[in-house]
Amino acid sequence: MRLPCPICGERDRREFYYAGHAVALERPGEGAGAEAWDDYVHNRENPCGETRDLWFHESGCGAWLVVTRDTASHAVLRAVLAEEAAR
């Protein structure tokens, strides 16, 4: 699989570290209760279709990316810097 780094261009996925679903960008608010935090830390969806994942360009520019891909077709649809995706 090849990932399109917005800074370095298209690269082999072995240059990146996979950090899971981009749920880290959707943290519970400051006043969230224990149940919300338990769900955030322990529960993950495993959808068939479009997903958003966090990837770290470990052997490249060091950027965190949010990669949108299709788990059914294995197509990489787009990648943006995580700081832009969080806005």
Walk me through the structure:
- With 87 residues, this protein is mainly beta.
- The two termini are 27 Å apart.
- Strand 5 (64-70) and strand 6 (76-81) form a beta hairpin.
- It is built from two helices and six strands; from the N terminus they run βββαβββα.
- The mean pLDDT is 90.
What integer is the average pLDDT? 90
Task: Describe the strand arrangement of the main beta sheet, using strand numbers.
Answer: 3-4-5-6
- Largest sheet: number of strands, sense, barrel closure: 4 strands, antiparallel
User: With helices defined by DSSP (H or I, 4 residues minimum), what is the helix count?
Assistant: 2
Q: Tell me roughly what share of residues is in helical segments.
A: 10-25%
Task: Name the descriptors.
mainly beta; 87 residues; 2 helices; four-stranded antiparallel β-sheet; two-stranded antiparallel sheet; 38% strand
Summarize the topology.
Elements: E1 2-5, E2 9-12, E3 17-21, H1 34-42, E4 50-56, E5 64-70, E6 76-81, H2 82-85
Antiparallel strand pairs: 1-2, 3-4, 4-5, 5-6
Compact overview of the structure:
By secondary structure, this protein is mainly beta. Helices cover 15% and strands 38% of the residues. It has helices spanning 34-42, 82-85, and strands at 2-5, 9-12, 17-21, 50-56, 64-70, 76-81.
